[in-house]
Write a structure and sequence with these properties.
The complex is a heterodimer of chains A (about 160) and B (about 300). Chain A is mostly helical. Chain A has helices spanning about 1-20, 25-45, 50-75, 90-110, 125-135, 135-160. Among the domains of chain A are: about 1-85; about 125-155. Chain A is about 70% helix and about 0% strand. In chain A, helix 1 (about 1-20) runs antiparallel to helix 2 (about 25-45) and helix 2 (about 25-45) packs antiparallel against helix 3. The mean pLDDT of chain A is about 85. In chain B, about 70% of the residues lie in helices and about 0% in strands. In chain B, helix 1 packs across helix 9 (about 210-235) and helix 8 (about 175-185) packs antiparallel against helix 9 (about 210-235). The model of chain B has no long low-confidence stretch (mean pLDDT about 90). Chain B is mainly α and about 300 residues long. Chain B has eleven helices and no strands. Classes of the chains: A mainly alpha (about 160), B mainly alpha (about 300). Chain B: Its main location: membrane. Chain B: This is NADH-quinone oxidoreductase subunit H. Chain B: It is a multi-pass membrane protein.
Chain lengths: ~160, ~300
């Protein structure tokens, strides 16, 4: 029961901060609110005993928000200062898309016949790794390394040393 | 959960970290030619000063960021086995290494918002410098902290520290240890990595902050540095165990005393690093990190993994 109340409260925080992302007129505040929304979801995962998953959400989302800031600097008209801006374009279309996606996801969550837990899962971190990777652990590891090497190589080759100003 | 015996270390955690961070700052003041009392004087001075506002600023966001910095440092320290009775850590968390990492990246957010908030150019540029710094140090750092975890087969710092009796991980994975030390300084945007608060920017992200705001930024930075240095002890230096070189009958003092000695050594190494290294330019460090440090970290992790598997 406590867990249910907590889940409802954290869910409300996640939704409210998520909506606020599109209300505020500063990209820094929007970034912060989006992070707060994700952190609420992460705390929810922690409350369900999924420590690794919850903490990784905090870790990844913080880094992701900061990488989003890099993209802001690259792409926005005015990445400096506190010029008012809006996160919303094409209001009618985006509302329809957002509502449709929400309905589909909510319906999925409610209608899917969730399996009952067959037995105590043991260490949830190990179970998660085995479930995500399965027998492909080695393939995924090698693939991840190859991807990383490709990224570093591409950046190293594309940045000429003389481009520094 | 509400057992007073487990709550007491949690309550004492923040004051203890403040005291040790103050000592570290005093050491830092001495090594940079200042008086040892300089941090205390500066703290009292800042406490009597007013906060500063700039035109069209965002003080709420900046103060959220500035508050996050010391809070994240305390939360990061919470999972470090500091030699308390039991497992040693104030909070026993099975995935403590990941928790530590998550708390420490909150500093990126803190410095960026601290620089963004005042709506001033030097502060903003300083805040933005956090991003290349973070992107450069984070991957070697993650690989460096995951390498002891691979060797110990656990993400729990207490288990990692217990797994290295006889041979410290600093000895058998020296590259990971060195990378960890470098990234410790980088995550606290300190020493050679102080570019976000750089003198060339008149203080960078902290340029427009005065009074309590400035105190939070600078105290939070020392607290983060100490918390990160403290994590080096269980990950690489055998935690609260006495050094293995003393043989089978060592002077086995209490675990916290060995922890404190090792923490002092790590902090001394970091202070020495600041003495011998100038502040790096972020683009240079990013190139170094991506082209040299990441491959080194991957190679170290690979060697450890192969040894563990074979």
């Amino acid at each position: 029961m406590t867990l249910l109340i907590m889940a409802a409260a954290l869910g409300a925080v996640a939704v409210v901060t998520g909506i606020a992302v599109f209300v505020v007129d500063s990209m820094a505040r929007a970034t912060f609110l989006l992070l707060a929304s994700f952190v609420a979801v992460a705390v929810l995962l922690l409350a369900f005993g999924l420590a690794y998953l919850g903490i990784v959400v905090v870790l990844m989302m913080t880094i992701e928000m900061m990488i989003m800031v890099v993209f802001m600097v690259m792409l926005m008209m005015n990445p400096a200062g506190l010029e008012p801006m809006t996160m919303v374009h094409n209001r009618a279309g985006s509302r329809v898309i957002a509502l449709a996606v929400f309905v589909v996801l909510a319906a999925g969550a409610l209608l899917v016949p969730w399996p009952t837990r067959p037995a105590a899962p043991g260490d949830p971190t190990t179970a998660l790794g085995a479930d995500l990777m399965g027998p492909q652990m080695l393939t995924m590891t090698v693939l991840g390394l190859a991807l990383l090497a490709t990224i570093v190589g591409t950046v190293a080759l594309s940045v000429s040393p003389g481009s520094r100003r | 959960m509400a057992d007073p015996a487990t709550l007491l270390p949690l309550l004492l955690l923040a004051p203890a970290l403040v005291v040790v961070a103050g000592l570290a700052a005093a050491g830092g003041a001495v090594t940079s030619g200042d008086r040892a009392t300089a941090p205390v004087v500066e703290t009292l001075r800042l406490l009597t000063k007013q906060r500063r506002r700039t035109p069209a600023d965002d003080p709420l966001l900046a103060r959220i960021g500035l508050t996050v910095l010391p809070v994240a440092a305390v939360l990061a320290l919470a999972v470090v086995p500091v030699g308390l009775p039991g497992t040693g850590a104030p909070v026993d968390l099975e995935v403590g290494v990941v928790w530590f990492n998550a708390m420490e990246v909150l500093a990126w957010f803190a410095v960026w918002t601290a620089g963004w908030g005042p709506n001033a150019v030097t502060a903003l540029v300083g805040g933005y410098r956090t991003l290349p710094l973070g992107l450069a140090y984070e991957l070697p750092h993650m690989l460096a902290i995951i390498t002891p975890a691979i060797a110990a087969g656990s993400l729990d710092p207490a288990r990692i520290s217990a797994a290295q009796h006889g041979l410290w991980y600093a000895v058998w994975m020296p590259v990971a240890f060195l990378l960890y030390l470098v990234s410790t300084a980088a995550m606290a945007f300190w020493g050679p990595f102080a570019a976000p608060l750089g003198r060339d920017l008149a203080g960078g992200a902290g340029a427009e902050h005065a009074g309590l705001d400035r105190l939070l930024l600078h105290a939070g930075r020392w607290m983060l540095l100490v918390a990160a240095a403290a994590m080096a002890v269980p990950l690489f230096l055998g935690g609260g165990a006495p050094p293995p070189i003393t043989g089978p009958d060592p002077f086995s003092g209490p675990a916290w005393s060995w922890f404190a000695i090792k923490l002092l050594v790590v902090l001394a190494l970091l202070l020495g690093l600041r003495r011998v290294m100038p502040v790096l330019r972020m683009e240079r460090f990013a190139t170094l990190a991506w082209v040299v440090l990441i491959p080194l970290a991957v190679a170290q992790a690979l060697v450890v993994t192969v040894v563990v598997l074979v």
